[in-house]
Every structure is written in C-alpha cells, then in structure tokens.
Specification:
Elements (H helix, E strand, L loop, with lengths): L1 H36 L4 H6 L2 E4 L8 E6 L2 E7 L2 H9 L22 E5 L22 E5 L4 E4 L4 E3 L11 E3 L4 E4 L1
Antiparallel strand pairs: 1-9, 2-3, 3-4, 5-6, 6-7, 8-9
C-alpha cells in the first residue's frame, strides 16, 4: 500500500513539474514577442533627437531647425545680447524666468527655443539678421505682434508664455543635439 501511494505521489510530482515547465515556456514564448513589440520602432528612434553642426553659425545669427516636425530656433547670441538678457528684471516679466535658466550655463551664447509663438503658434521672425526682431532684439511674431527678447522671453504682445526651451545638449564643441 505504501508503494502504491509513493508511486502516485511520484507521478503527481512529475505531472506538476511538467505542467510548470510547459507553462513557463508558453508564457515566455508569448511574453517575449509582446515585450519586444513595445520597443520603439526605428522610425520613432530616428525622430527622437536631431544633431546639427553649429560651427558655421556666427554670433548674432540664428538658424531654424526641425525636431519632431516642429520648428526650433538655434541662435548664437552676441555678448551684448547676453548682457541685455541678463540685465532684465525678472519680476517685471509676464512669464518670469532668468536668462541663466534658459541657456546652458557653460555656453550662454547658445539659445535653443521653440519657434512657435505661444499665442497662436505662428512662426516669429528673427532667425535672419535682416528680419524684424522686435523691440527687444529677439523674435517678433508678425501675426499678432508679440515681441520676445534675446532669451526668448515674452516682453510685449498677446503671447502668454516664453518660447519653450527643448531638451538639448552639446555632444562636442560643434555638435548640438536636440532631444
């Protein structure tokens, strides 16, 4: 009688272990493709950041670049523009933000901001030196007359917020990565 029970017990253990092993393999074979399919596609990864060579941008110049299908200004500010942006009394601004909070501390000559007016999304002028840069020397939205300073902060007009600063970093001395 004891041998019969131990035989049943041995079969039961074998069936349990086999069931657990088959279940584990089944779950892994179903779960791995599911987890793998949640990874970003190559197209999404390619759009997640953009790199540009900024060596040819002279002080006072700006370029318009696209990242994630939206325009951004990359501007190399002059020493006078940096000084003017730093001297602004932050408390007097509609959207108070220090210039130092909007630029890279080590390279304050570079300003990277979104190029859509925060009022209705028009693209302000000011990328080219010949364009109207508004009363504060930064950017001017011709749609409704918003004026931004050399730090991209709203100074006059209907726009409620500063031009947004995207995530960016300097990969090397001449390569800037947005995103």
């Amino acid at each position: 009688m004891a041998d019969k029970e131990s035989t049943h017990h041995g079969r039961r253990d074998f069936l349990q272990l086999t069931s657990i092993a088959v279940g584990t393999v089944g779950a892994a074979s179903f779960g791995w493709p599911l987890v793998f399919s949640m990874d970003k596609s190559a197209e999404v990864k390619a759009l997640s950041s953009t790199e540009l060579d900024i060596a040819s941008i002279q002080p006072g110049q700006a370029i318009l670049v696209k990242w994630r299908k939206k325009p951004y200004f990359v501007r190399r500010r002059t020493k006078d523009e940096i000084s003017a942006a730093e001297k602004v009394e932050v408390a007097s601004l509609r959207d108070p933000e220090k210039d130092s909070a909007r630029v890279n501390r080590d390279r304050p000559e570079w300003l990277v901001v979104g190029a859509n007016c925060t009022h209705f999304g028009c693209i302000p002028t000011g990328a080219k030196a010949t364009e109207n840069r508004g009363e504060f020397g930064g950017f001017y939205c011709p749609c409704h007359g918003s004026h931004y300073d050399t730090s991209g902060r709203i100074r006059k007009g209907p726009a409620p917020k500063n031009l947004p600063v995207p995530p960016y970093k300097f990969v090397s001395d001449n390569i800037l990565r947005i995103g």
